[in-house]
Design a protein that fits this description.
globular; Four Helix Bundle (Hemerythrin (Met), subunit A); Elongation Factor Tu (Ef-tu), domain 3; Rossmann fold; single chain; alpha/beta; 3 domains; six-stranded antiparallel sheet
Length: about 425
Amino acid sequence: MKFISTFKNLITRKNFNLALFVITLVLLGSLLPEELSIQRWIAAFFAANALVSMAFTFVLATRHQALESIFGGLDQMYVIHRWSGIWSVFSILMHWWLVPQSDTESTGFNIAEFGSDTGEWATWLLVFLIAISFLKLLPYHWWKWTHKLMGVVFIITVLHFVFAVKPFSIFSPAGIAMSITSIIGIAAWWYYLTGKNKSKHYLAKVKNLTRHDNIISFDAKPLQGYPQWQAGQFAFISIPNHSEIPSEPHPYTIASHNTQGIPRFAIAALGDYTKLLNQHLQEGDKVEINMPYGKFQLKQNTKHQIWIGAGVGITPFLAWLQQLTQKPASELNATLYYLVRDSQSAVFAEELALLCSQLPKINLQVIYSSQQRLTAEKIKEDISDLSNTELYFCGSAKVRGSMQVGLESLGMPKNSIHYELFDFRNAFL
């Protein structure tokens, strides 16, 4: 694990993922028999790719903590999960197109023909489920079941691998590798389907609920257990058995440092679900929290840090500041920009000012968009030397994108910009 961490520090996370993808392709290609015709070799290569990438999507779906460490957070795992699913579809279609077809008519049951048929079934079922997933034709609770049904596609694919005519023996290096991959994929899918990982699940009660502007803030006091987390991490929250609020889980940053094992959340009414949450969640309601996740954590180093919290995106920085007040001798230097529409929307301005008053090396600036907008040029004026700074951003993807382009053009290194993606259902980049 230490080697992987060191290797990742030398390259960007996208290059790390690309390197892993290329290494996998090379390994798969090296296992296949060299004496095959080019068409059969390519067909077998894409078949192996389909099996491996589908198994990999299920492994990622387990959300294991070790995987977060390898890939840099759950958000990055979702991006890879989605692209892995796309590669599965592409590979299985390429295999189906390239594999040689037999002209011999069969009489009665034939195990090889059965194996070939299962491949075609898997192809069409996978295309159907992927189309539903991408087009968002179903509400979340049904969409989630389409993901669970992907395991059926994988099992059919495994049957195709076992029974169809293959250009290599099941006991050859390629056959053994594909068999082990099949077992791992089925085990990971079963783990995901049955929800075996309960160590991060807590039932909690809503306490200290407040409403201000369009933001609802509350503590989630666990009814059992004592959750642990790092400042800046997030949780999935769902509201069970509520007549007005769907029970689907949604990710929200924990807006507090881990001092008493009671996570705090602040949620803005920005979409249909969050509007229902803001309207109907009440003191004493029960919530299910699945935590912690994420790698958006405070890193104390000698570089000057720029923190930008846009609207409710200020929540991870609230947790960071609380953590720093526990160690007031910290040498960390940072400029925190709190971006809000106007003074009425600056729900956390007073709390931020109180925390920053205990941390003289943290410079707080509240920016009202109704009066001015934060620009890369404004940050350049405040910081001067961007070549030795790091940016941590939480908020609108549109604001982040423009800020990222502007700061990089003014000298900030690309590897110095940190953020997390929260649109897991549409994660691509």
